[in-house]
């Protein structure tokens, strides 16, 4: 070997073992563990982000399912109320005037109401153009007649204008077996889709509401083209959707490899009172695609850091990239835990993260508004469930809630609380003589009179049940309660409602009065029992009378006194 060749090889070896190569090797030895650790951290961040995204979407989906349940429940409440009113008026003749009163303005998902006659044709409707339409061929109509209960249809096209709808039907026979009438409502599918607006724009996630045949009833705005389409006709999804709609479970989740080779996860939740299900189908590859791209970009950044700026660049990346991501993940986690007051824009993030931070804040604001809307809807439904439709007063449920509240309030303040139990005298004879419609009219007039007296005396009037009413008087002693009871007795008698089977030839009431200063030894039930006992004394004394019973302190018994009318 010539001397020149040996010299060249020696020079090459010296370059490989020189200071630059050693620094590069040292840098690699120092950076390699950091790169491995960073890789592990990124994978953990990826898993956390995927879990957080899934958790957030599941929460939004549950919120949407709850809203759908509330909408169906409100439709059922409206139909039942209309059926009860119709049954009270007539078993065979439709009372068309009840439709406008039964359709609340604040329930926009109910498109219209209708009463269907014995012949299966629409006799009354909130939309006049529907009159006369024949519903005998509709499956839901047949099932409602057979079941004597609420039935919600699958996807339908309206006979009137061919628009997609869902129908709900409730037979009046469920209240009065002699009636062949049916109360029906058309549900606005556009509104059902609006409820799912929070579920739109999710890459790789399909959220839809399907009926028992797999036909799409509602979908977010970006998937609105699927409404009316049968998922059982889409090969990649057919088997899984069929499995979900045939399941006996209320909720479920399972993974399935579809015919196109993509692994997907399907979650479903049944909407009570219907055969519909809210279905979520997650394409895991697409759902995690954005996160995977972020991970790949982060690896590329690490590589560039190692080549050009080594440890200094790693420190800068930690401060400018990783920490802001962790802050956003922490804020997203707080969102998932229900803390919607968290804001990303005030977290000192770099300018590059400002659009994302603003998007986070906008999402939190929208979720807060949705939550407030749901609370308001629940409050409205609670009020509707606490009002007696006939008298306009609170029903027994509303009365019990108010009694518990006033009892606790009086117990805290040391004040007095009085209760009037009011029973219409010989009301069965009145109904037998004049008929139930007149009986209902009688109860309505008495309810109006009680409402006026309650307003004048700062009391709370309610229909306790049947022909029995109650008047709760906070901060009122027994003496004053007796005066008010006499005012009630006289006011009802002065209504002058004829009653030929009564000794007074007019409708009268018997009133039991009880007063108490609430304490730990007594319960609201004691006050009710005392008022009932007083009412019994008033009725035994000849009716059209007032009797009083005072509850003493713990261990003492009050007395009962009957006052003449």
Describe this structure in words.
With about 575 residues, the protein is α+β, with helices and mostly antiparallel strands. It is built from 14 helices and 17 strands. The strands form three sheets. Strands 1, 2, 3, 4, 5 and 6 form a six-stranded antiparallel beta sheet that branches. It has a six-stranded mixed beta sheet with strand order 13-14-12-15-16-17, sandwiched between helices. Helix 2 (about 20-90) crosses helix 8 (about 290-335), helix 11 (about 425-435) packs across helix 12 (about 435-455) and helix 12 crosses helix 13 (about 480-495). It is elongated. Residues about 15-20 and about 555-565 have low confidence and may be disordered.
Q: Termini separation (Å)?
A: 139 Å
- The low-pLDDT segments are 15-20, 553-565
Give the rounded overall mean pLDDT: 78
- Figure out the total of helices: 14
Tell me roughly what share of residues is in helical segments. Answer: 40-55%
| Strand elements, count | 17
Query: Any idea what the shape is?
Result: elongated
Strand residues, percent = 15-25%
| Structural class category | alpha+beta
Rg over CA atoms, rounded to whole Å, is 36 Å
Largest sheet: 6 strands, antiparallel
